[in-house]
Amino acid sequence: MEESSRNSSSPPKQNSNQLEEIEIPKEHLFEKPLTPSDVGKLNRLVIPKQNAEKYFPLNDSINDSGEKGFLLSFEDELGKLWKFRYSYWNSSQSYVLTKGWSRFVKEKKLDAGDVVLFERHRVDGDRQFIGWRRKNGDAVAAAAATTVAPPGGGGGWGQVHPFPSAGVPYQTDFLHAGCVFFFNTYLSH
């Protein structure tokens, strides 16, 4: 009886606690295998020249101290925002990420041979993503799932991302900021 009373044209009722996955349209920019010096005491990541000039052109961005450079912001696989100082070192003729890089390496527990991935939002080109995978191809979910509370306590996820916290599904290829989760707010009447 219940089956016959259902109108086939009406949408099925949805549970308001059901999670819905939205894919973020991303453009893969490049990957960088990490060298021992990228994860060592130099506290910097060398960006290959062809990738640096194509995706992060410095043009005439000169800061107050007379150096070329600016801050680049990226979202990781958890939606956490990472800011890195990006500049050109005349001494080694290298494009580098400096300030903020060593903290990223420590939090993600990166080692030489691991690969860092750079992506950009297809619609909002100012929105960029950073991901990583282990040198053997295995992504370590425990390292990616660890969140560090900001100094002074409080906040964490809510300060960085407007949506409620939800687990990120394990991805066999690599971890990245490819999905945003939110609670479905569809209300049936």
From TrEMBL:
Report domain TF-B3 positions.
Answer: 30-135
- Coarse class of the primary localization is nucleus
Decide whether keyword Transcription is in the record: yes
What segments bear the compositional bias annotation Low complexity? Answer: 1-18
InterPro entries with a match to the protein in the record: B3_DNA-bd (IPR003340), DNA-bd_pseudobarrel_sf (IPR015300), LEC2-like (IPR044800)
Kindly give the SUPFAM superfamilies that the UniProt entry links to this protein. DNA-binding pseudobarrel domain
The answer to whether the entry has keyword Transcription is yes
List the GO cellular component terms. nucleus
UniProtKB keywords = DNA-binding, Nucleus, Transcription, Transcription regulation
**Molecular function (Gene Ontology), one example:** DNA binding
Origin, by domain of life? Eukaryota
Location in the cell reads: Nucleus
**Which residue intervals make up region (Disordered)?**
1-35
One Pfam family recorded for the sequence: B3
UniProt-recorded name of the protein? Transcription factor
Organism of derivation: Solanum tuberosum
Query: Corresponding gene?
Result: LOC102578582
